[in-house]
Design brief:
By secondary structure, this protein is α/β, with parallel strands linked by helices. The protein is 38% helix and 19% strand. The chain is built from eleven helices and nine strands. It is globular, with a radius of gyration of 19 Å. The protein binds pantoate (PAF).
Amino acid sequence: MEIVSSQAALRNMLARWKQGDSVSVGFVPTMGALHDGHLALVRAAQTENSRVVVSIFVNPTQFNNPHDFASYPRTSDADCAVLEALGTDAVYFPVADELYPNGMQAAHYNLAGLDTRMEGAARPGHFQGVATVVDALFEHVEPDRAYFGAKDFQQVAVIRQLVALRGGLPQVVACATVREADGLAMSSRNLLLTPAQRAAAPRIYAGLRQAAAALRTGATPAAARLQFEKHVHQSPELEVEYLDLAHPLTLELLPDHQVLSAESSAHYFAVVRAGNVRLIDNFPVE
Ligand code: PAF
């Protein structure tokens, strides 16, 4: 496995690879602290591409809380070890000045309103920061396909819009959320949970499933939200920050007091706080 940490070294490596016939590059951008969800992305990339690059960069412009940025887990030695064991071709540790040659600030993209609701409302500027770094990473890595986890469903929608602005490349591949055996969505932030918070956290997924079932049996979104909050708040460790019901493509919020029709498409988006840790999850209403 090659480990590259300058744009020049990355370019040399890619040029070397591309001397071969029909080389395709799959790319998995990450902020490190890798878990099985990331490894599933790497495996998917390996099946569809001849080479796979994983980047590790904790991106300051997508954090609107300095404490969250400072406490984000950083485990690069362990990350490299698992990536090597998996047969990853290369890990890219970008240099901040090369990703942000004009200074550490987010650019502004027309994200078609996908960036303003839910996580966008809770973390103003977050998705502009994500789009800025992902755009720069795409410029550096020039991948054919890029892989993202559906756990960050809204992020995937934002990246698809970014790719549309870039003219359609790379192809975006969204991979299913990987969950612990008890249903908790895998996340680097799970490392920050106390044992009591970790024990309570599966209530989020269970609550989402219950709320989706309630909607499909005629509850209004408002009533289903109350049911979700009641289930989650049975644990004193957890505090619901939001549970929003939105259209899965436009991400437009659906009315609170209107029962869903059988044909309507809807998707749940939730953030639940465990102390300072924000746990994010989503679930389709099918
Ligand atoms: O999902 C993440 O880990 C990050 O938001 C990403 C896509 C690597 C951009 O920093």
